[in-house]
Amino acid sequence: MQLLAEELRRRGRSIVATTTTAMFARELEAVGSLVLESGLAALRTGVEGAIGQLGSLALARENRGDGKVGGLPPEWIDDLWATSHADYFLVEADGSRGKSLKLFGQHEPRVPSLATTIVQVAGLDALGAPLTDFNAHRSGRVAQFLGCELGATVTADMFSRILDEQSRVLQSRWPNARVVMYLNKADDLHKTDDLSKADDRHLRRAGPTPAIGLLVESQGRANNPGPAAIVVGSLRNRSFLRVDAHCLSHSACRG
User: Fold this and answer.
1) What are the average pLDDT values for consecutive 10-residue runs of the chain, which has 255 residues?
2) Residue 165 gets which letter from DSSP?
3) Are residues 54 and 160 in the same domain?
4) DSSP conformation class of 206
5) Dihedral pair phi/psi, residue 197, rounded to 5°
6) Counted domains in the chain
7) Residue 90 — φ and ψ, nearest 5°?
8) pTM score above 0.85
9) Nearest 5°: phi and psi at 76?
10) CA 39, 108, 173: angle at the middle one, nearest 5?
11) 20 and 113 inside one domain
């Protein structure tokens, strides 16, 4: 969220950042001045009064007292988006307690109905790791879905099946939104030679991207057309590789 906000600010865009779950206040404050209001009307007034002057604004509903702030109902964000003059809303709409892999719960994710782009995030460090609470949120539920035991090694196929299920949920519930799959924690991605000329065989061999081939090949499984694009990268190093899920064209950029 902070990286997106930085890029949009450089382009002169106005931004509202918020969450539909809960976030550390410091994370929202890194994007913009934080407005805390318990009512929609007050939030609407706050946005109207500040966005033109500040350019970047962060919204939350309440201070939870643990360093975190409570987020807004998705329908409030739809209202604020429709009534404000902000160019972009950046919304944290799901939580995994910092784990690299998860399945959505019954009421997850909490995405506003007017969302135009949904970024589906997972951590590549879960690959080859044991399926435990250390790297998977609600690991028992994940194991039940996969039909494996807790502690089993997370294979590329298992990893792909989880992401396919997430993608299926996102596309069925928000059919008008563009879904982008972002695979984070490829921290040595910048060491890959000549990323802009990488072909599929090179990607399959590359250390930080063992799942790309399988993820692309799995598009269409379970009547799931897959995401509009797959991006592999490292937020830590601000290095990113885009993999077009339909034509396997590749391009690289540095954030």
Assistant:
1) 91 94 93 93 89 86 91 96 92 88 91 95 90 91 93 90 91 93 78 38 38 52 70 87 56 37
2) H
3) no
4) -
5) -110, 10
6) 2
7) -110, 120
8) no
9) -65, -40
10) 100
11) no
